[in-house]
Amino acid sequence: MPFPFHLLAPPDPAALPLPHPARPADGVTLLRGAVYAVPDGGRPLTTDLWLPEDATGPVPVVVFVHGGAWHTGLRDDPGPRFRAWRPGPFARLARAGFAVVCPDYRLSGEAPHPAQRDDLAAVLAWLRTRAGDLGFDPSRTVLWGESAGGHLAALTALTQPPGTVAGCVTWYAPTDLPGLAEDRPEGTYDAHDPASFEALLLGGAPAGRPDTARDASPVTHVGTGAPPFLLLHGTDDSLVPPRQSVRLAEALRAAGHHPDLCLVGGGDHLWVGLSDADAADCFARTLAFARRCAGTGGAAGSGT
Q1: What 3-state DSSP class applies to 144?
Q2: How far apart are CA 94 and CA 303, in angstroms?
Q3: Per its UniProt entry, which superkingdom is the organism in (predicted)?
Q4: Are 115 and 203 in contact (CB under 8 A)?
């Protein structure tokens, strides 16, 4: 009898049991490391799920996309300014009534664009499939990402069918990869460099892959069906010029939208240079925006 090779196929992530719950903070349940996809020839992709306890109905969702120049990063890391928060940002969002989803995605050393966008689309599909098990309302999903994660959040929000995403928040995100050569100070960026973080994402130097660079740029995909956007960017960002967020805001306005663009005075990348109060205000703005998109109301400072 020939061997039944179909038995070697990975199980359907939609049918796998969910992880055992932990309780990292009062009022919060954490399911760490749920498998949401198994790319062919790649590692299983997992996500953490921060859930509000005692929810009375399906809850809105915030999907957090970590940064790290597409090349590194941890799914549960919102950046150095927030690592010492107790409770942390995700627990605060859960206490405010959101489920928070923190997925892995394939890094640039594993696969080039569009793998990262495809992975985030897969986690959104998995959330829709598991919504009944988890008590989620996937129609009220807000994407939030910082740095490269903000780029991927925006790219995903703009390439999903209209209505899939209720809103998108980006923190100091690149949005127009071909435009980086113009936006960065002279001598600080080489579009022909095959070793740049952008080149590693694209599978080659941006100058040699103009079509791929455009396809990987959120500004390329702005249309009439774009969701609401909150764009936060420091005026003193030395890694990703604030002009990158302005470019996306301009593209959204040209398509008839009204994005909320906030250029944070004195902020460098990762909110370096901001006071603790100003960094906390960036989080408060994010929570307030997510509440508006999800229709939950409440005060912007709640969830602490």
Answers
A1: strand
A2: 7
A3: Bacteria
A4: no
Q: Which two tokens stand for residue 36?
A: 């949401």
The rounded distance, in Å, linking the Cα atoms of 161 and 141 is 13
Quick: pLDDT tens for 122-157: 999 999 999 999 999 999 999 999 999 999 999 999
Please provide the distance, in angstroms rounded to a whole number, between the alpha carbons at the two ends of the chain. Answer: 62
Strands 260-264 and 167-171, sheet pairing: unpaired
The structural domains of the chain, ordered by start, are 17-294 (3.40.50.1820)
DSSP letter for each residue of 176-198: -TTTHHHHSPTTS--TT-TTSHH
Assigned token pair, 106? 């394939």
Q: What's the farthest any 2 CA atoms get from each other in the chain?
A: 71
Using the Cα atoms of residue 153, residue 157, residue 160 and residue 164 in order, give the sign of their dihedral.
positive
pLDDT digits (tens, 9 = 90+) for 186-237: 888 999 999 999 999 999 999 999 999 999 999 999 999 999 999 999 999 9
Instruction: List the structure tokens of 103.
Output: 């997925």
Q: Which helix (H) or strand (E) holds 199?
A: helix 197-202
* Neighbour count for residue 284 (Cβ, 10 Å): 18
CA distance 163 to 166: 6
Cα gap 295→297, rounded to integer Å: 6
